[in-house]
Design brief:
It comes from Luteolibacter rhizosphaerae. One of its GO terms (molecular function) is methyltransferase activity. This is Class I SAM-dependent methyltransferase. With 254 residues, this protein is an alpha/beta fold. It has one domain (40-251): Rossmann fold. It contains 8 helices and 7 strands, in the order H-H-H-E-H-E-H-E-H-E-H-E-H-E-E. The protein has helices at residues 5-17, 43-46, 72-81, 95-107, 147-158, 171-180, 196-207, 224-237, and strands spanning 85-89, 112-117, 164-168, 185-190, 210-218, 242-244, 247-251. It has a 7-stranded mixed β-sheet, with helices on both faces. The two termini are 27 Å apart.
């Protein structure tokens, strides 16, 4: 007799607390387990205290600029999929999350967007101190980035605090947490690192978290590291890559 989902979750939690790694570094393959799926709001599982509570967002400028964050692909995918949950891996200042939230509001969908990021900056953000667009955007204070607070401020300014939930942690660790809590999503947007191995690991880690009929998609096809990782993952998994405007897509079969 198979273990109940509650027992499986308890065993996973016990293994974690005993120091066993849950990381899955493996070749990609379809998930055929047909397991359950946590359908509630994720924020109460992540934050005992609302991350926006008493945050003085007015001390930060109105600056949600990013790259590809206003793409029409977001509205098209939200309209087509009508997601119950969205996970974004790589958020920066929150531009794409705000675009997604805007479309969700137009459709009257009560969808939670979970934003996964360290808010410490990708490799290219740290390679040229004269680059105000990248290095300057880190907003260093005493040598530490303040990007997370700029993100919070942008969300607060838009009034979408109840919809957008931050998860400030490395992407692979977040995927482990989602798996541990049986959290899946209809849309997962990959827009973190541009390094091939990092992107590939994100694809491996998040593919099984896509619900049947859902879409794993991403940005930066022009970056060699991103393109090579997506092509490698698609080749190993056997799922075709499609393109929508400036985004690439991998669709999970129903």
């Amino acid at each position: 007799m198979s273990l109940s989902r509650q027992m499986q979750s308890w065993i996973k939690g016990l293994a974690y607390h005993c120091g066993f790694s849950l990381r899955r570094l493996r070749a990609a393959k379809a998930n055929t387990s047909g397991g359950g799926d946590y359908t509630g709001r994720v924020r109460p599982l992540l934050h005992k205290v609302d991350p926006y509570e008493n945050f003085d967002w007015q001390t930060f400028p109105d600056n949600s600029s990013g790259w590809g964050s206003d793409s029409p692909a977001f509205a098209e995918l939200v309209t087509e999929i009508r997601p119950a949950r969205i996970i974004e891996v790589g958020t920066w200042k929150g531009g794409s999350a705000l675009t997604l939230a805007s479309q969700l509001e137009k459709l009257g969908l009560d969808t939670e967007i979970i934003c996964v990021d360290t808010w410490l900056g990708a490799l290219e953000m740290w390679t040229d101190q004269a680059d105000e667009e990248r290095f300057g955007s880190l907003g260093l204070r005493h040598g530490y980035p303040t990007l997370y607070y700029q993100f919070l401020a942008n969300v607060c300014r838009s009034g979408r605090q109840s919809r957008i939930t931050p998860f400030p942690i490395p992407s692979v660790t977040a995927a482990q947490w989602f798996s541990l809590h049986d959290v899946r999503a209809d849309l997962i947007y990959i827009d973190g690192s541009h390094e091939e191995e990092d992107v590939y690991q994100d694809l491996v880690s998040y593919w099984d978290l896509v619900r049947p009929g859902g879409v794993l998609f991403g940005d930066d096809w022009s970056w060699d590291g991103v393109r090579l990782a997506v092509e490698r993952f698609a080749r190993e998994s056997g799922f075709p890559i499609t393109h929508r405007h400036d985004k690439w897509e991998l669709r999970r079969p129903v």
